[in-house]
Amino acid sequence: MKTENDSTPSISRRRFLGGVGGAALSLPSLESLAAAEKPATRLAFFYLPNGLTRRGFFPGESDRELPQFANQNNVWRFEEEEAPVGTHPLVFTPTMESLHPFRDKISLITGMDRTFQHGTDSHAQAASCYLSEVAPFELEGSAYPISRTMDHVAADRISRRMPFPTLELSCNDSKDNIESIYFDNMSWYGPGHVAPSMRDPRKVYDRLFGTKGNTRYRNITDLVLGNARRLKRKLGTADRDKFNEYFESVRSIENRLDRMDEMRADMKPLSIDRPGEGLLPRRDYLHLMSDLMIAALQSGLTNVSTLMIGAERWGTTIKYEGILEHPRSHHGMTHNQHKYVDDLLKLDAFHVGVYARMLEKMDGITEADGSTLLDHTILTLGAGLGDGATHQYNDLPVVVAGRGDAFRLGHHIHCPRGTPLANLWLSQLEVLGIKRERFADSTGRLNSILT
């Protein structure tokens, strides 16, 4: 913040952006450019397909009997009582272990349910209807209770003026499109109008930073920094550090994308395709896509984003280098937990670890007022199924992180049986300043998570 003795010249954000040669790159919030600007509130979702292995994720279920596969439309539910209703200390199960460093910045919420509308596949509704604002059976003439999803409802308020009101990402790099759009998309403009997920990191980067086809100025960071050198001298010391940190993060993403291009060039022609195998190891691919989401939120390109770690019910085998010994179909494993439980637990822990890495990176990005990106982001981890074998829609896994001024963090909150997941979405919308009487099948706010 500028003081009486601070002689740093003031400069508007518009003038700064105009002085970098018109490069299509948005900047993070810098104190020298907008001292009075309050950091924007962001909303993001980290979606896990096919549910989580309960004995590894849910506290108190390590000795639960492994379930058998249930028919796709026979949405099963546990009948025995789980954790007592109320607020409990956080217990870090093996799947959640990577979240321990952020124990004061997250809350685990269990016991929340959804309602399955019979007539379609349970996996398809798990993803496509996860954020829908319409309740099951309310939409006439549709097999799916899909209407405008929460990310777009929120974007209408907090991201409408952004270059990208929403950003939809999926880590399904398979070319084997064996399923419909309902299995690989969770974002909808309205009934029948999908907001398709982007899967290719290169295309995401080109969309965000406008470098596609710009061979003369391939390295956008060098271009912007070169044109901005004169104006950079007018920034305060703290803002110079943030300026450098931001562009180094962009450079890191671009370097990884360059490596992808080199790998493509070195690949020899094959007589058959290798379905489901990406050009990057699975870990690098997921990290790169999550980094792109963070860069978009940090830079002000969008305030709302969704990231699907994979598609629902996609049968293609995937290589999980360094995680699983052999290529596997995640969906197939969930239907035979007795055989693959160890691999499922490794994979679940890996996916939650990607989420933990996002929290770490976001908590290390400083905003203009000294807070962090995580402080101003509601980042929810969740799945549309409580278990992949039973296809249950009750007792879903949910972790909420960020916006510590609005949520009670550092707890395990177990809700009364029958509490709709939509109660959480209604509460999050309220934190974003969006007043609604109802969202989907909500019955009220989730007061136990609100401060």
Structure, explained:
The protein is of the alpha/beta class and 451 residues long. The protein has one domain. It has eleven helices and ten strands. It has an eight-stranded mixed sheet with strand order 2-10-3-9-8-1-7-4, with helices on both faces. The protein has a two-stranded antiparallel sheet with strand order 5-6. It starts with 12 loop residues before the first helix and ends in a 20-residue tail after the last helix.
Outline of this structure?
The chain has 451 residues and is α/β, with parallel strands linked by helices.
List keywords for this structure.
disordered N terminus, alpha/beta, two-stranded antiparallel ribbon, eight-stranded mixed beta sheet, 12% strand, single chain, 11 helices, 451 residues
